Amino acid sequence: MNLSAVDVLIYGNNRNLVTLQKTALAAFNFKKIHWSPTFTDMRESMTLAFRDIIIINDHADLDMEAMLTMLRTEKSIANPFAVVILVTPNSSRKYIQNALRIGADGVMGLPFSATDMWKQLSFFINHQRTFLRTGSYFGPDRRRIKGISYDGDERRDADEIDEDDRVADRSRLAAAS
Fold first, then answer.
1. Is the pTM for the entire model greater than 0.85?
2. Half-sphere exposure of 70 (CA within 13 A, CB side)
3. Which of 32, 77, 128, 169 would bridge 7 by S-S if both were Cys, CB 3.0 to 4.6 A apart?
4. What is the 3-state secondary structure (H, E, C) of the chain?
């Protein structure tokens, strides 16, 4: 797997955690690793460059919903299809489901090992999800299990999902796998 062309952005204000993540990414052969310690820096970085993977380190001041909404819907963002992984010490089911509901591709709990990080990254590189655009959501298709028939109430109108919006531009990730 050639990851040297994959561009990774790490957001977070914990220098020790960021250093650990950067060291692990470099060991996995990622060459383009960037760090944004503030929301403003992250927005600027995402506007100026096409980032393939974004690692968001959760902290007390993080407005996760505002950040994910900005990453997925703001017109100035170079790659709204980037893989977004939230790293958090919060392991509550409700918190994780909320992160996935508002546009994160996945959640990685703290503490983690380099092996855990590699498993998460390789999973997202090798199992890219299509994106959906509805009236209230833009992001990765949250349905992971395909082929299981659903017999509950249909909560989406058939017209609500635009088939043209199911294709994501994650070409460098596809080339890496």
1. no
2. 15
3. 32
4. CCCCCCEEEEECCCHHHHHHHHHHHHHCCCCEEEEECCHHHHHHHHHHCCCCEEEEECCCCCCHHHHHHHHHHCCCCCCCCCEEEEEECCCCHHHHHHHHHCCCCEEEECCCCHHHHHHHHHHHHHCCCCEEECCCCEEECCCCCCCCCCCCCCCCCHHHCCHHHHCCCCHHHHHHC
**CA atoms of 110 and 120, how far apart (whole Å):** 13
Evaluate whether 52 touches 82 at the Cβ level (below 8 Å): yes
**Phi and psi at residue 7, to the nearest 5°:** -100, 120
The pLDDT value recorded for residue 57 is: 95
Cβ proximity of 166 and 131 under 8 Å: yes
**Do the beta carbons of residue 36 and residue 42 sit within 8 Å?**
yes
Could you tell me the two tokens for 108?
């990685």
Q: What are the per-10-residue average pLDDT scores of the chain (177 residues)?
A: 90 95 95 95 94 92 88 89 92 90 89 91 81 69 56 56 50 61
Residue 54 near residue 71 (C-beta atoms within 8 A): yes
Residue spans of the domains in the chain: they are 7-142+151-176
In total, the chain counts a number of residues equal to 177
